[in-house]
């Protein structure tokens, strides 16, 4: 029996080593690899930054300001907010900050995925399908670096129809939980996303700080309405052999939950 268990130990060792050896390769590419440069001095596209917000009056104004202060022609960017089932003054705050605001009240189809579906529908219906070349998706508690749009635009000009930006943390030092979240994102950005991007294997959308072309939404629809709408839409693209690009220098800051209860609820 001891010989059998020893043999099985080596079998499992060889199996798991073979199964996860590719991760060592990704580790090396991520740690020592550099982001491939985007297309500089290329076409500047017209975008809409879209934000789904539910009772986010305390934070949404700051995000809109960082979008309005981008190192990108202001006439080529609209900020559009869907105030989704809000019971506070999120809509008023967003309008005051300069955003176009839609208000949605639906107690049956609840969640960010449904809110984005609603917003895409109304944008195409009200503004026409050819108004924008692409959309940026953000959470209301984000802030973005001033060169975010330019880096994303450069990456889009490489030919990607969906691009994920670098997901950083607004509050890594607030608690052990926010630091843990932040550490995971930093590792994932470098070892997973950057490695996949440089190898042109396709990255994963992270729920915020990403771009998707208007053509892609027109052709395939949004349709991602589950709790993990970012993963659902990533898989939808993968099934159509559409790769998500990675823009390592396009930084968006996301607010991590302070407590375990908040994290579990999210």
Topology:
Layout (H helix, E strand, L loop, with lengths): L1 H31 L14 E7 L6 H9 L8 E8 L5 H7 L3 E5 L7 H16 L6 E6 L3 E2 L3 H9 L5 E8 L6 H23 L11 E4 H7 L8 H11 L5 E10 L5 H6 L1
Parallel strand pairs: 1-2, 1-4, 2-3, 6-8
Antiparallel strand pairs: 4-7, 5-8, 6-7
Helix pairs in contact: 1-6
Textual characterization of the structure:
The protein is 45% helix and 19% strand. It is built from nine helices and eight strands. Strands 3-2-1-4-7-6-8-5 form an eight-stranded mixed beta sheet, with helices on both faces. Helix 1 packs across helix 6. The radius of gyration is 20 Å and the shape is globular.
What class would the helix/strand composition place it in? Answer: alpha/beta
Please work out how many helical segments DSSP would assign. 9
Helix percent band? 40-55%
Physical arrangement of strands within the biggest beta sheet: 3-2-1-4-7-6-8-5
Strand count, sense and barrel status of the largest sheet are: 8 strands, mixed
Strand content: 15-25%
Structure described in brief:
The chain is α/β, with parallel strands linked by helices and 266 residues long. It is 45% helix and 19% strand.
């Amino acid at each position: 029996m001891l010989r059998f268990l020893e043999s099985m130990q080596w079998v499992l060792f060889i199996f798991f080593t073979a199964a996860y050896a590719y991760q060592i390769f990704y580790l090396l590419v991520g740690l020592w690899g550099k982001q491939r440069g985007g297309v500089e001095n290329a076409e500047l596209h017209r975008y809409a930054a879209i934000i789904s917000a539910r009772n986010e009056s305390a934070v949404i104004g700051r995000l809109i300001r960082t979008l309005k202060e981008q190192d990108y022609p202001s006439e080529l960017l609209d900020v559009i907010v869907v105030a989704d089932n809000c019971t506070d003054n999120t809509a008023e705050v967003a309008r005051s900050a300069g955003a176009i605001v839609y208000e949605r009240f639906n107690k049956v189809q609840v969640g960010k995925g449904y809110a984005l579906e609603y917003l895409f529908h109304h944008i195409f219906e009200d503004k026409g399908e050819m108004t924008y070349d692409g959309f940026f998706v953000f959470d209301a508690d984000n802030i973005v670096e001033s060169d975010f749009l330019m880096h994303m635009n450069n990456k889009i000009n490489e030919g990607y129809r969906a691009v994920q930006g670098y997901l950083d943390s607004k509050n890594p030092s607030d608690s052990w939980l926010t630091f843990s979240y932040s550490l995971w994102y930093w590792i994932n950005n470098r070892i997973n996303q950057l490695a996949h991007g440089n190898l042109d294997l396709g990255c994963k959308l992270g729920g915020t700080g990403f771009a998707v072309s208007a053509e892609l939404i027109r052709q395939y629809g949004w349709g991602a309405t589950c709790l993990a709408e970012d993963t659902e839409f990533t898989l939808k693209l993968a099934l159509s052999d559409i790769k998500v690009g990675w823009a390592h220098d396009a930084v968006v800051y996301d607010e991590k939950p302070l407590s375990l209860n908040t994290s579990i609820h999210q």
